[in-house]
Amino acid sequence: MEWTIGWWQISVQRVYPSNAQLSQTYNQAASWWHQHLQLLGYSHAYRELWRSLKNSNILPQNQDKVSICDCGIGTAAFSLAFAQIINPNAHITGVDISSEMLNKAHQKLSQVNVAHRICQSDLNALPFADHTFDAVICAHTLEHLPNPEQGLREIVRVLRPGAPLILVVTQSGLLGWLIQSYWGNRCFNQEELSKLIHEVGLTQLQFVPFTLGLARFTSIACIGFKR
């Protein structure tokens, strides 16, 4: 945004946290993050989202030991809900920029015997070969990227052809802006997210509403498939 006042031109440009700043912020939050999600109802909302996807038969069927990448795994709340509702035999690869979040994710997944590995990495440069995963799941991570299209293209790269991305982002609105003011993330509306997903080549896009808790007012969930 730019304004001209007399002989002065004033501009305002959005600045996102650096990787180091983001890592430090979430390292500090790791000790209380999982309980925070439970208290605010996100863990339950995640389970209901997976149940809705399961009941609608959107997800690929007849797969047992699928390979799942959770981008921005945090303390593994989204992965735990997936394992509980969809497939307890899945192998989860958890990626996060925060080492402390990864430690918590490892603890939580180990406690319920979910096969997994953890990987500290920037989402913009995933350390995996092309066409590695049967699905990618990603909750409240894309909005932290200065260039979300770049991050999405990297996700698409590691998906196998025909495989789904299940994506959750912070929704534009008053509550979204309050979250944004604290964490420094962006927010999306459905139109913006739809355009972005189509630009990176995902097809069969479907939005799946949250029906419970705070997530109903703060989050958008969708699923798209790699060509």
Automatic annotation (TrEMBL):
GO terms for biological process: methylation. It holds the Pfam family Methyltransf_11. Residues 70-166 form the Methyltransferase type domain. PANTHER family: METHYLTRANSFERASE (PTHR43591). GO terms for molecular function: S-adenosylmethionine-dependent methyltransferase activity. It comes from the Bacteria. The keyword Methyltransferase applies. This is Type 11 methyltransferase. Keywords: Methyltransferase, Transferase.
